[in-house]
Amino acid sequence: MLSVRHLSLSPLLREVNFSVPPGEIITLMGPSGSGKSTLFAWMVGALSTDFRAHGELWLNDRRCDALPVEQRGIGILFQDALLFDHFSVGQNLLLALPAHIKGKERRGQVEAALSSAGLTGFFASDPATLSGGERARISLLRALLAQPQALLLDEPFNRLDKPLRARFRDWVFTQVRERHIPVVLVTHDEDDIPANGRVIHLSDWH
Questions:
Q1: pLDDT of residue 42
Q2: Could you report the per-residue pLDDT of 14-38, keeping only the tens digit for each?
Q3: If DSSP codes are grouped into helix, strand and coil, which group holds residue 138?
Q4: 188-197 long-range contacts, CB within 8 A, separation 24+
Q5: Least packed by Cβ within 10 Å: which of 7, 104, 119, 131?
Q6: What is the spatial distance between Cα 127 and Cα 111, in angstroms, rounded to a whole number?
Q7: Beta strands at 199-201 and 25-29: parallel, antiparallel or unpaired
């Protein structure tokens, strides 16, 4: 369970409260400048000093808002697939794996992830040769291989054309539900909202 409790982010948001059970995807909607990215920055531990935060962040019965970024267990996926272009696809994914996964198991987990995304044989590929859809899938795999306990999706479908966007969106939702990860999605497009999914408008917190 991911929970934000009694959060105020001055000067943008006040009395933010919501909880996301494992495997559920809730959607945050609001115009540009309404505080979506600032809220995500606070949740991952990268809030600008331009803002003052008061409130609590809980993940699986552990309070996280005072922890450093790497200890929170929260992954984030942006609309731009931020891959290291001087590394191969496989090397990008290996970097995401937790340190406790050792030896041949590391390569095995990456190959299995690529296979699950329909990208068998891409381990040695140069990221510069990937299509937009392939980069998007690699970016999500990297976020999932880090074994996050919660995931934030910051308009990750925004740069994809409509047919590819629909397929990738459905694949993402399937992946996170199978892993029982609580997910918060930010989008401007109502088509991105999961069927029967909860929607929260940031205007409710202004």
A1: 96
A2: 999 999 999 999 999 988 888 888 9
A3: helix
A4: 188/29, 188/155, 188/158, 189/157, 189/158, 190/29, 191/165, 191/166, 192/27, 192/157, 193/27, 194/25, 194/27, 197/24, 197/25, 197/26, 197/27
A5: 104
A6: 16
A7: parallel
Cβ pair 23, 176 in contact under 8 A: yes
Contact assessment for residue 84 and residue 92, using Cβ atoms and an 8 Å cutoff: yes
3-state secondary structure 45-96: CCCCCCCEEEEEEEECCEECCCCCHHHCCEEEEECCCCCCCCCCHHHHHHHH
Q: What is the pLDDT of residue 14?
A: 92
pLDDT tens by residue, 48-78: 999 999 999 999 999 999 999 999 999 998 8
Closest to 183 in 3D by CA, of 34, 12, 23 = 23
- Which two tokens mark 155? 């308009």
Residue 106 CA to residue 104 CA, distance in Å, equals 5
Give 39's contacts (C-beta < 8 A, 6+ positions apart).
Answer: 4, 7, 9, 13, 16, 28, 202
Length of the chain: 206
The pTM of this model reads 0.90
Answer whether the bond into residue 11 is a cis peptide, omega within 30°. Answer: yes
Nearest 5°: CA angle at 117, between 158 and 126? 80
Cα distance between residue 165 and residue 132, in whole Å: 10
